[in-house]
Each structure stands twice: as C-alpha cells, then as structure tokens.
Specification:
heterodimer; A: 481 residues; 15 helices; 26% strand; elongated; B: three-stranded antiparallel β-sheet
C-alpha cells in the first residue's frame, strides 16, 4: 500500500490516543516495537481505538518510522494478531455454508497472554508510556478483524448473543509454563484444596501479586519467543432447530428410534429415521433426535391424528426455511405410502417442546385391541364386562416382566377409564380401551402371570391373550398452530 | 377428522387359535422360550449320577423333579414347576396330597429388591433353594433357582394361596430371576 501523503501530525490530530504530545507518541512507538511488539500491539498500547487505523498498518508503521526488521513473533499477542487469521476463519466458515445473519465469537487465548500483558503494563509505566485503562483487548482486536471480513464476504455481523457460534482456541506450547510461578503448589494438603492453574485462578493471583513480586519472577518487557501461537481449533456451533408435529405409524414392526441389538437392526425402519432423514437433508444438520409424547411398541400402530413429537436438528446449516418446504416432506410421505406419516409438521420454538414431556405423564390414551379368549364368552359374561367397563377400573400393575430388567420393581395403580368389548367371531374379540398415561395395555389383557390385577382375563375368567394393539388417540394439544 | 373403524384380519391367527384352544396355557410360549431344569440332580451332583441313570423309568421320573425356566426376550427367567413334575403330573400327584404350604427360604423372604439397578438383590446360583413345598401327606419338594443371577421377585401369592401352583402353573410361578449374563448358553448351564 502506498504511503499516504498526510503527515503524522495530521493523523495524530484526528485520532484519540493516550498521548498529548506527538513526539512522545513516536518515541513510545519505537521503544515498544524494539521490544518485539508487533504493529497491532503497538497501536493498541498507544491507545488507538478499533477502527480504520488498524487497517492502515503499513502506512502508520512507516509514519512512525518503525523498522521492518522484526521477524520474531510479538511478545504481547504471541503473533496472534495478523490478518491471515481472519482469512482462515472466514474461509472455513464459508465452507460450511451456514445461513446465519449474526454470530457470536468465543475466543480462548493461551494463559501466558495475561501474564505478559501485566509485564507490558510494567514496562510501559517504567518508561513513562501512558496506558489507557480501556485500551484495546486482544480478544476485541481479533473479533474486530474477523467481523470486518465476515460482513464484507458473508453479510453477517458479530453480536453479543446469537444462535450461531464460532469458537477459537489458540495454543502456545512455548510459553505454557509462564503462569506457573503464580500458582500455589499446595501438595501437602489434600488435593481438593490445591489451586489449579485455571484462568480465573491466574487472573486472581495476578491481581493480588504486587509489582515487585511480579518482577522477581517475570521479565518486563516479556521474553522473546521463537514460535507464534497456533490456532488449534475453529469450531462452528449452531443452536438446534426444532420441528414439531404429530406422527402416524400405519404399519407394524417400526420402532420409534433405531432398534439395534448386537450390531444388527431388529426393525428395518424407525419413526425417527423416516422423519429425520428428509429434515436432515433440508436443514443440513449433523444429526437429529426425535422426542415423542410417549412411545408405542414396535408392533403397535399409531392411528387417529397421531402422536405429538418434536425433532431436534443438531447444528443445522440452513434454518431459514419456507413452510412449503416443510409441508413438502409431509406431502411426500403421504404420496409414497410411507409406513410413517406426519401431520401439522412445522417449525417450532424451543419453549414449545416442554409440552411434549409434560403431556406424556398426564394425558389419557385410547386403544383398540384384538383380544383372544380360551373360550367364547357367554352373552351375560360379555355384558357384565362391558358394564364394569363403563365405570373406572383401577389396576394394580406390577412392573411388567418384559420391562422389569430396566425399570424399578413397583406396583403402580393405573386407571382404565373406559372399556368396551365386542365379539368378532369365535374366540376373537375387539376391545376398545381408554386408559391413564403409563398403563401397560398388553399386561391388562393377559394379566402378566397374575401380576396385573384385575386383568381382562380375570374379568372374563378365561385365559386371554392380545394379538394386535393399536393406539387410536393421544390427547394432547400440539403442535401450537 | 376421518376415523375409519379398525378391522382385524383374523386369517393369520386361525392356526394359533386352534393350537391354543386345545391348551390355552401355551399362550405363554408367545412371550417366553421354555427350558427345563431338573431339581433332583442338584442334590445328587456330588454322588455318582451313573446310579440314578440306570434306575427304572418310573423311578427316574420321580427323581427328576422338573422345573420350567421360561426366558423372556430381555433374558429374565420365570421359574416354576414343569408339567412333568410329580406335583403336577396327573398320575403322580394323587398319593402326594395337595399342596398345603409353600415355604420360601429365609434369604428369599428377607431379600431387598428395589431401585432400577436392583443392586442389593439376593444373588442366586442354580442350586440355591428358593422354597420348600409341603403337601397334605407330609411330602416335601425343594424348588431351586436353576439359573445364576439376581432375584427379581418371589411369588408372594403362594404364601396365602399355595393351591395356585397346581391350579395354574404359570400364575403359580415360584420366582423371577435376572441372569448375570446375556449369553444364553451360560444362563442355561445348569439346565437340561
């Protein structure tokens, strides 16, 4: 970049610094630069605010007559402050093609930076260089240069809080033990009291450390280094996108989530994959998680207007979606006669998901079952059962044997709110049941070896079994619109 | 909202219907895989088994005292008396008298079974005595655990209703055990 014609004095007049005298400013700049401080940091310590000044570095370096022979990395910022950093971060960000409009940047610097800053402060004070208390912080400088690039190339601005996060971690092994002198090595007492070398501990110890004590263990200006700090990690994280709706399961042998034992799939399909895969393609997320308001067994269908659920799309690249695109997924599942279909599929807010788990515990469910009795029931017996079924029946259900391996052994009282049994033919009957959430219906029918009392078998005084079960209705007001 | 009434295709169940009609209690085979354990062998394991093998047919049936080990898909085993057990066999049970008492072992009655992981549950080996069954004619039969694992449940109903064992062998089960391993061959090591 060509040196601008403006003399240093004009430049000095236009920008606020820590100085009143231009000669003092010039002397300070040279002294700092000679101590292995880069131009970025020189400008910071001189008190320049973040702005165009930092983009005209070569120009200013020339005006301040800073020699170009400095090859070793800056002792203050460990070589972190350079424009390649912004290029690196921004190009990586563009690779992912997130469609975010704002972003928050998190930065982790090597711990030695804090110690070295104190050392710089002491150097400045001993050389009568005034240092502003609100001088530009290294992290703010990094955010500044990255946000300049981002808004130019990606039309996105850096803010304090956002669903989109860029996390940067810098490592500098060469100076990693520089903070150790501040840490108390208290090995004599038990381990819990020993102070770690965490960032907060170091900051606190530095504040408590007097200048004399500091200078006894650490040089001022900071010691030279041969390697620059390295940008170890650039991580991108986006707040999850939530899609809600109701799902129907029209065929049997579909589990809610992938069911794998010993590496083999037990059921070919799962509700979460049938709904999740198209959404994964649409949102370009890393993975997804389906949460339903309750579950039905793999061999049980979910009919009626479906079971409320939400699907969390983790780290989505695309979140700006049209309702039409969501609707297309619903339409497509219908057109292809998919065993799992959805209704009212829509984007929802994270707060809307609370209802799903709350409803699981206190909403009633309606079922329809194919029941078999060892002997056809007499008219009277059938009438008797249906009469009992008009009133509430309270069951004492011991934890069913089929889940006893993973649930606590308890006897849970559960209500059958209504029961209606209709004869189909021979020993086959159709039972319509409305029950409290958490009632095991299969066990209510056959009695689970007498561990669910009463059972339909007991009421009919015949061995009974259930051959098919369907959930007809899950009463829960969801999704929101 | 369209709600078409649900209809069931019964054709697929005709065969099952016929099989179960003859022996309804076999419905448990839809939920459990049945294996067998011979209780009488446990006591004789230290003695020469050759002797018992050479005894005549009727004797060896009495000696066997078969128990069923019904394993659910989650590996939990329900232990009870098999239909060939002297107490259930049509010919053999008469002289024994009906069951008057099912006396569970002290360590079974005092066992603690609670919590999701059931950590404090009583540990059992196949030979562990679960209970002693007393008959009206003063005969006694021991029921053993048959598998190595933790006790999940013992059938308290039998304390007040000992006749349940003979009336309904599947509701009159003795105990439910959680094996230590998922490996069927290891679980059923003591079984026949």
């Amino acid at each position: 970049m060509a040196e601008s014609a403006e003399p240093l004095s004009g430049f000095f007049a236009r920008h606020k610094t820590a100085f009143n005298d231009i000669e003092q400013l010039q002397q300070a700049a040279v002294a700092l630069h000679k101590s292995n401080v880069c131009v970025w940091c020189v400008l910071r310590f001189l008190g320049f605010e973040l702005g165009s000044v930092y983009q005209q570095q070569t120009d200013i370096a020339a005006k301040l007559k800073l020699s170009n022979t400095n090859d070793s990395p800056c002792v203050a910022c460990l070589g972190i402050l350079n424009y390649d950093l912004a290029d690196q971060v921004v190009s990586k960000y563009r690779e992912q093609q997130f469609d975010a409009t704002d972003v928050v940047i998190g930065i982790e610097l090597p711990k030695s930076v804090v110690v070295r800053h104190r050392s710089m402060q002491l150097y400045c004070s001993s050389n009568k260089i005034p240092v502003l208390s609100d001088m530009v912080d290294i992290k703010d400088a990094i955010k500044y240069m990255i946000s300049q690039q981002l808004s130019r190339q990606c039309d996105i601005h850096v803010v304090g809080e956002s669903g989109m996060r860029i996390d940067l971690v810098f490592i500098h092994s060469e100076s990693s033990s520089e903070c150790q002198f501040l840490v108390k090595q208290d090995i004599s007492r038990n381990r819990r009291n020993a102070n770690g070398d965490s960032r907060t501990t170091i900051v606190n110890e530095l504040a408590a450390c007097s200048d004399e004590k500091f200078l006894a263990s650490f040089t001022s200006p900071p010691p030279a280094i041969s390697t620059a700090a390295r940008l170890e990690t650039i991580a991108f994280k986006r707040a999850s996108l939530f899609v809600g709706g109701r799902y129907l399961k029209l065929e049997r042998n579909v589990s809610q989530t992938p069911f794998i034992i010993d590496g083999r799939r037990v059921t070919e399909f799962s509700v979460s994959e049938i709904i999740g895969e198209p959404l994964k393609l649409l949102t370009r997320c890393d993975s997804y998680n389906l949460v339903g308001s309750g579950r039905e067994d793999a061999d049980v269908r979910m009919l009626g207007d479906g079971r409320p659920f939400y699907l969390e799309c983790i780290n989505p690249r695309t979140t700006q979606l049209e309702q039409q695109q969501i609707h297309d997924i619903e339409h497509n599942l219908k057109q292809t006669n998919s065993p799992v279909q959805v209704r009212q599929l829509q984007l929802i807010k994270p707060e809307d998901t609370k209802v799903i788990k709350e409803g699981e515990e206190n909403k009633t469910k309606h079922y329809c079952a194919l029941v078999w009795f060892a002997n056809q029931l007499s008219e009277e017996k059938l009438e008797e059962i249906n009469k009992m079924g008009q009133k509430e029946i309270v069951l004492q259900q011991k934890t069913p044997i089929r889940v006893l391996h993973r649930r606590a052994p308890l006897t849970r009282p559960k209500k059958i709110l209504s029961l209606k049994v209709v004869h189909i033919r021979g020993r086959f009957y159709k039972a319509s049941i409305e029950s409290e959430a958490g009632t095991y219906i299969k066990e209510f029918v056959h009695g689970d070896l007498g561990r669910t009392v009463p059972s339909l078998a007991q009421m009919a005084n015949e061995t009974a079994d259930i051959f098919e079960l369907d959930v007809e209705k899950v009463s829960l007001d969801f999704p929101p619109s | 909202m369209d709600s078409v009434p649900i209809t069931y295709e019964l054709g697929a169940y005709e065969q099952l219907d016929r099989q179960l009609q003859a022996q309804p209690e076999l419905y448990v085979n839809r939920y459990f895989a049945e294996h067998f354990y011979e209780c009488a062998l446990a006591g004789k394991r230290k003695l020469e088994q050759v002797e018992s093998a050479s005894e005549d047919a009727s004797n060896s049936v009495i000696n066997r005292e078969r128990q069923y080990v019904r394993m659910a898909p989650n590996k939990l085993c329900v232990i009870g008396l098999a239909s060939s057990h002297p107490l259930l066999d049509a010919e053999l049970k008469g002289p024994l008298g009906e069951i008057v008492k099912v006396e569970f072992a002290d360590n079974v009655v005092n066992s603690v079974i609670k919590g999701k992981s059931k950590k404090q549950s009583l540990r059992l080996t196949p030979d562990t005595k679960l209970c002693t069954i007393h008959t009206a004619n003063d005969k006694q039969f021991i029921v053993r655990a048959a598998v190595k694992g933790k006790l999940m449940e013992w059938n308290q109903r039998l304390e007040s209703d000992p006749g349940l064992v003979q009336r309904s062998p599947e509701q009159g089960f003795i105990a439910i055990i959680k094996p230590n391993t998922d490996d069927n061959s290891k679980i059923l090591e003591a079984c026949v």
